[in-house]
Amino acid sequence: MELPNKFVRWMDKDQGYDPKTTKMYERMTRKFLEWLNKEGETITHFSDLNAGSVRNYRNYLIIDRGLKASSVNKSLQSIRVMCEWARQNGDIDSNPARKIPYIEEAMLAPKSLDIRQSAELRTLINIKPLRTQVIVELGLSAGLRVSESVCIRINDITFERGKAYIRVRFGKGGKYRTVPASKHLATLLKLYNENHQEKDDFLLVNEDGSQMSIRMIQKIMAQLKKTLDYPITYHILRHTFCSDLLNSGAKLTDVAVMAGHIRKNGMPNIMTTARYVLSRPDQLMAAVQQMEKWRRKNQSTNADSFKG
Fold it and tell me: Where is the Tyr recombinase domain (predicted)?
């Protein structure tokens, strides 16, 4: 059975999913249907789908493919969405994918840079072009997503008494917010804006004056990564901004507002922001290493007492 084009249009037109989400769900559901065909399951209509097939596919992703829980859960979510479309379309009476639970996984804090890594990155970009410095600091000092940074225009930045504010007109989920810039970022923005004449121009532009693409920023980040000994992406810059705010004493609600974690009613979605107070993988490793030191110390003390 082929994936109906109507399903893709339904996600895009009727549900208003983000284009990236629509493409991801389309890709994952196609892989599910292809797997069913390879396994010899005769699926000619959505009514042929059952919970057992979804369960077997989940187990295949875990055991045979060795995917992480987050990747498996995304696949399950895409299948649930497809089956929900089929149910609304009258092809099935109930959603069989809802009977298969997600894989439960301990939630950890998103990857972020520690103080040493942030300092090393800033030392590196200080010898780079001003545009590169602005690109990095928009993520590191304002928490912007890469999709938001490329859409910032000159007139989205306002300066008031030595302070700068960045207006994000269309953030993730169509959310609007204004983010105060750090003093360092404000200085960079003022220097950078001196070369711009038209206020309606995009802030980040190519050599020919055209709007910089997300892909171009990703290439710049990839070049920086070659010099560093740790992973670095634009989203890690955003995570670092949120993490550093909380570590420096900012309120959870303030971080939620600046990060754009906002509910439909305009209230801060602190449940999303709360993940930044969780432990990072490296902190868990540090805890285990601390335990080993404690064991060695106490085992040595106990051994000496036994000899005595």
Answer: 108-289
